[in-house]
Amino acid sequence: MDLLPFSLVIASAVSHASWNLLAKQCSDKEVFLWWTTFTSLFTLLPLFYLILPDWCLPPAAVPYLLASGVAETLYFLSLGRAYELGDLSVVYPLARSSPLFLFILAVVFLGEEVSKWGALGILLVVLGVYTLHLRGLSSTEFLTPLTSLRGRASQLALLTAFWTSLYSLIDKMGVMAVDPLQYAFWLDFFIAAFLTPVVLLRRGWSATVSEWRRSSLRVLVSGFLMRFGYVLVLLAMSLTQVSYILAVRQLSVVIGAALGVGLLGEKYGGVRLLGSLIIFMGVLILGTMT
User: Fold this and answer.
1) pLDDT score at 81
2) Can you spell out the DSSP letters for the chain?
């Protein structure tokens, strides 16, 4: 992978882990994520004003925007519920295990070819995500990540990973059809159009107002970080293969685990470090050998 897309994805990983920490710390996760999506429509307007040459909705992008809007709505709903039920250091690694799903989808639907080094890097990332989910290094703990999938939080986190793979694949096709920045600008409108009625029906207007009063500053910061980080990903998608991009972006798992252990006081820091090192090796291979 070239230096430019690699750097864009690393910056996006930092951004992604940061806004997920903010989401985990809030009271009503689902409403917080809705506010994050809604405010991101406005927090990046100055940036788009400076860099976007054409604000018109490209007709060629509409099918991809519709499909991605649905997939990302399902992503936010499952992620919010997972954070209500589980720890950041458990839910976040599982939710970011999407390279395995995307590897299969990209090969089947996009015809992408992955080199031996690329496949090794992706496998190491997935192995690292698995290791981060362990509670210890004994043989009795080795199957913990699999048995923990019986828990609702883990199931929802894994479902979130699937939605991530799906919308990433759709967005890859979208930025191949139109300008990535133009696509990124309109994507939030489509997500908000699908997510808003669902959240209002499920939570009600009073809950949305209450969460805004509690978390308005965090919402604004989270909204900027979320969409700015994904703009970087979309730019990177226009430059290299989507399977590599999503794998490199899993460096956010390392950051997220560190935040969960360091700031939230969650357990199993030693195992998290080992998993982080495995992920780092996978990222290093993807960034230098492919």
Assistant:
1) 93
2) --HHHHHHHHHHHHHHHHHHHHHHHSSSHHHHHHHHHHHHHHHTHHHHHHH-S--SPPGGGHHHHHHHHHHHHHHHHHHHHHHHHS-HHHHHHHHT-THHHHHHHIIIII-----HHHHHHHHHHHHHHHHHT-S-SSGGGTTHHHHGGGSHHHHHHHHHHHHHHHHHHHHHHHHHHS-HHHHHHHHHHHHHHHHHHHHHHHH-HHHHHHHHHHHHHHHHHHHHHHHHHHHHHHHHHTTS-HHHHHHHTTHHHHHHHHHHHHTT--S-HHHHHHHHHHHHHHHHHHHH--
Q: Is-contact 185 52, C-beta < 8 A? A: yes
Domain count, the chain: 1
CB atoms within 10 A of CB 1: 24
Q: Which amino acid is at 258?
A: A
Which pTM does this prediction carry? Answer: 0.81
Burial 51-87 (b: 16+ CB within 10 A, else e): eeeeeeebeebeebbebbbbbbbbbbbbbbbbbbbbb
Query: How sure is the predictor about 246, in pLDDT bands with cuts at 50, 70 and 90?
Result: low
Domain holding 269, by residue range, is 3-288
- Interhelix angle 152-177/205-237, nearest 10 degrees: 50
**3: number of Cβ within 10 Å:** 9
The answer to whether 125 touches 279, Cβ cutoff 8 Å, is yes
What's the pLDDT tens digit per position in 170-200?
A: 998 998 899 888 898 899 899 999 999 999 9
